[in-house]
Amino acid sequence: LTTISSCASSRRMDKNKTKYIIGMIVAMLIWGVAWTSGKAAVEHSNAQISSFWRYAISLIGMLPVIWYLKEPLKTDKIGLIYMTISGILTATFSYLFFAGLSHGDAGYGGTMVTSLVPLITYILSIIIFKTVVNKRQIIALCIGFLGAVILLNIPINGLDFLNVNSSYFLGAAFVWSLVTILTQKVANRVKPMFYTLVVFFVTGLVNMFFALPYHPFEITNFDFVFWINILFVGLLSGTFATAIFFISASKIGAHNTGIFMFIVPIGAIISSIFAYNEQIEFSTIIGCCLSFLSVVLFNFNGLKKKKNSNNLN
Fold first, then answer.
1. Mean pLDDT in each 10-residue stretch from start to end of the chain (313 residues)?
2. Could you tell me where the beta strands, DSSP code E, fall in the chain?
3. What CA–CA distance (Å, rounded) separates 28 from 42?
4. Is 44 exposed, middle or buried (0-12, 13-18, 19+ CB in 10 A)?
5. What are the counts of helices (DSSP H) followed by strands (DSSP E) for the chain?
């Protein structure tokens, strides 16, 4: 009877885990499509207007989520400082995101940023926090660096990636890496959803000041295409997908989330092909795959330990 009960419990756990894995995949695909939707929004406004409304809508959408989940709304002074800085950096990322989309392709941008963020984050962690890495992780970083070189098409075009079409995305990847590090630092001081709420508030406030010269509150100045896309980016990507991400991450393990991030380019590439008939270069796909391999290899120990722990249980 004990064995039967244990097997039934195990099946329930596997079923629940599958549910959260599916949720994570859905969230990543939505984040991917948001790159194409964001491009449509900025084409019908500008980077400042799109940045403001994206986070204003996300902030409003986050309020009922916080209420439903009954997240504790508390932190300490250090946590508040971290969240404020993260909000300012997120505002910078938001501008670079939309500015990059106004000049470049959504599929390339979604692939480039998603692929470079883990590599930059690892390197910054080593430099800032003196994180110790072993030989396997050094190899992983080298593979990731090779992926970045190919992704930026350096072997063929040299430093041509430092143009207006790519520099915004490169800057966005660097800024989001800083946000990632700050998020890790503040993780033990504040609950994820409350952290997101405060960051959205600070981001929206900062973006509002930069958008004011363009009259963001004169909503009739913006057409249906802008509003439908900014609502998608703000509500579905900013609120819904973010909530699914945090809930699913807490169930499947934070160490596994980096792997799922590489689903984002799939959503970005497929949606950009349908919406804009964008052509994705082979080098972009190879660079993304190498970056994915780098993340898997870098975190292999953690995944193995987790698996062994589950087997023991």
1. 50 65 87 94 96 96 89 88 94 95 87 83 80 80 83 70 77 90 84 90 96 95 96 93 79 65 83 86 83 76 46 42
2. none
3. 21
4. middle
5. 14, 0
Helix axes 300-312, 282-298, angle to 10 degrees: 50
Could you give the maximum distance between any two Cα atoms of the chain, in Å? 71
* DSSP state letter for 278: P
Number of residues that this document lists for the chain: 313
CB 36 within 8 A of CB 272: yes
Whole-number Å distance between alpha carbons of 294 and 311: 26
83 in Cβ contact with 195 (< 8 Å)? yes
Radius of gyration of the chain (CA): 20
Question: CB-based contacts of 138: which residues, under 8 Å, 6+ apart?
Answer: none
In the structure encoding, which two tokens stand for residue 198, read together?
């405060």
Q: What letters, b where the CB count within 10 A reaches 16 and e where it falls short, cover 114-136?
A: bbbbbbbbbebbeeeeeeeeeee
Q: How far apart are CA 203 and CA 197, in angstroms?
A: 10
pTM of the model: 0.84
Phi, psi of 57 (to 5 degrees): -65, -40
Phi, psi of 279 (to 5 degrees): -100, 120
At position 253, the amino acid (one-letter code) is G
DSSP string for residues in 162-224: SSHHHHHHHHHHHHHHHHHHHHHHHTTTS-HHHHHHHHHHHHHHHHHHHHGGG-TT-GGGS-H
